[in-house]
Amino acid sequence: MAENSDIARRVEELRAEVARHERLYRVENRPEITDTRFDALLRELRKLEDAHPDLAPPDSPTRTVGDDRLEAFETVRHLRPMASLDNTYSRDELFAFDQRLLRVLAEERADPGDPLPYIVEPKIDGLAISLVYENGKLTRAVTRGNGEEGDNVTANVRTIPTLPDTLAGGGHPGLIEIRGEIYMTLAEFRRVNGEREAEDQPKFMNPRNLAAGTIKQLDPRVVARRRLEIVLYSVGALEGGRFDEQHEIHECFRAWGLPVVEKYWQAQGIEKAWAAVEELDRLRSTFAYPTDGAVIKLDNTNWQQIAGSTSKAPRWAISYKFAAEQAETVLRKVSIQVGRTGALTPVAELDPVVVAGSTVSRATLHNEDEIARKDIREGDTVIVEKAGEIIPAVVRVVTEKRPPDAEPFDFAARLRDLGHNAERVPGQAAWHLKGRNNPELTRRRIEHFAGRTAMDIDGLGTEIVRQLIGADLVRDLPDLYRLKAEDLLPLEKFARKSADNLVAAIDASRANDLWRLIHGLGIPHVGAQSAKDLARHFGSLDALMAADTEILAEVDGIGPVMAESITAFFADPDNEARVRALVDEANVNTRALESRDETPQNLSGLTFVITGTLPSLSRDEAKALIEKAGGKCTGSVSKKTDYLLAGESAGSKLDKADTLGIHVIDEPKLRALLEG
Asked: Does pTM surpass 0.85?
């Protein structure tokens, strides 16, 4: 009895843990464990349920698809259920999958000895989506949800530039439900994460999390600013047509102008299918999108129907997951990063080690709870992998190699040792600095204000800021504009010329364009591009400060979250006093230097991508000229790109522009366009 009680207790623990991680992955888009670890939990639960059927209810996670629905979206029923795939990490299990199908289909085949026909596709690490086209027109886009019902995200999906609203060609079915994956390219993932880092927001762990979080935004304008991509590969409901083989679906989709996988393999038998999987593993690093495995499907659709499905997954398809590349190294120290808003983030300082082709010396530890859960200690030997092949993360500790004197990491004690006056945010795992006059918070605020994408004060780097604060010369942003060369001379590494240069650089920043001041203030969620949008729309700081949340949310590119953040920022008495001192005492410029009415908008409505090294302009300078003339710059080439501005060493963007027939121009041609 005691043993049965222990088993029942473990089943409940596993069920609760799986449900928690499902929610973190599908709804909150912030997974805490790897796919491998999650699948191991699910397998343990399935094994216990198989041995004890009385402990396996119909709604167990082993028998249901996870649920990604949110209350903010309309719930829509799929025309046909949208299943997930069973995963395997083993060649033997893949071959066992083939043996099961051979037995199930033995009576259907003329020669039972013939190998089964398969198709092998890249498994793109994204968000599953179902599209409905009626008479060739896109009418609906729905997330997987719980497999039966999903969220209606049609408005957001329509912002994906590569997805046609109308199918090309003719002879379309009266109705077709098309399944696929929404994803984000690695280049766009790095761009968005770079912006979030500059804005002191947590970075996304991998492109899948970012794509999933983006498609669930309530404002389609925010979705449009993050360039999502889509690939389509299967069919749900179908009226007025038929596909006999899986590979026909790819070719038909391609003819209709739909985005499809760039490569797939037809394989006669599991041996050739396995060879295709191995080839895909070698090639996947060259793809623009993240792939975490291969999908192996029966190519014959009649046999697919005979093989059938479980309540959760089809029996005629399986996902083979590639093992993430890992490496073993030593964690020497846990350092604490201070964000511009005072957020404190732990980072592992590692002995350098090569992981997935690049040298890793630092890795994210996420937060205090994650350190405690994995029992990470300084001096530990740890296993590191690139989460989603992008951001290095500590996966686990090799406890058998732990030094005998290694102590559990005390987050609060480390903060005290560093002199940080901090507190943990109630209900969260995050810590923040306390006190508005905290020296570390002041340092980060000034560093951000002086940064290249803000007020761009040359020479005002981290060490100089530390000295200014340490000498009590600067306590807040307005104090910068009271500095004199004589104040700087007693500081380290300052001579008359360097002191004069810094004072001159600070003085010159008074005349900066309004958007630089807006970004420099450090308003949470407001990055450089959003600051430009706000400056262009309102024209003056006074108009921006007077705008309420409703007015702000109507600005192109500014969603409700950012609007609330802006109004809260200016409503804070300390922030208001700081801004007034910058305006009234420091006399910084508070108006947009160029408005659309005053500047010739010769590039209005045109989209540019910049690549390579230009003869006389930096990329930032070229971007500023384009935006000043009404144009828009994006990070990747697509059908919506009007011009690729290419310099030396242009690379893959030039190749893609040539493929899509995009106009390629050099710097002299850009200047000609600017002049009209």
From this structure: no
